[in-house]
Amino acid sequence: MSKVSSTASEALAGILRDGMMIMAGGFGLCGIPESLIEAVRLSGVKDLTVVSNNAGVDGIGLGRLLETRQIRKMISSYVGENKLFAQQFLAGELEIEFNPQGTLAERVRAGGAGIPAFYTKTGVGTLVAEGKPTQVFDGETYVQERGLFADVALVHAYKGDAEGNLVYRKTARNFNPVMATAAKVTVAEVEHLVEIGELDADHIHTPGIYVSSVVHVPNPTKHIEQRTVRKHDMEEAN
């Protein structure tokens, strides 16, 4: 049976509700499920807990949901590049659960693997470890971190088929594959929708068994957070 939806809003119809936890793939603006995030914005759901490495930038990606105050809590590792994110946090308007980046990735992977908790040395003795159980192993102190499992995961892939098999491209792979496994429902937007059987089985990163719905989003905008270019030779001479 085909899992293809005609629009992002159709793919999320009947899934979204107030107060739910959403995972959103991407790193910065690379590999973010922008059309699905926009569908969340248009739905009007609120009091969301969002798991993502960061919250996009002002006006793009999850930054759009911050503008509409639909996010109550972020579980993230990075606040930079988004002034509104920082402003809402510092004003006490947005709850943030900070995670070291590797810990966040492992919490998501653990959730997808059915692992409720694990121990890590990262963050021991810092604010990250406050209120969390600790345990000594071989003379070293470790802090317990809980696995994360969301109500819905929103991911962006380079290629996908009607069965939900997904292939990511280069650095846009980032958090997308682990998040696709760590939710009750996973919805994927794909740049190229191909025929079933066209994807090399050895090249599939996310098997379709994890994916509930796919929406074709051809030619998405590839945003650049910070463009750095070399000065022209004449400018350097001056």
Automatic annotation (TrEMBL):
Gene3D superfamilies: Glutaconate Coenzyme A-transferase (3.40.1080.10). Keywords: Transferase. GO terms for molecular function: CoA-transferase activity. SMART domains: CoA_trans. Pfam families: CoA_trans. The keyword Transferase applies. It comes from the Bacteria. NCBIfam families: pcaI_scoA_fam (TIGR02429). Belongs to the 3-oxoacid CoA-transferase subunit A family. This is CoA transferase subunit A. It comes from Allorhizobium terrae.
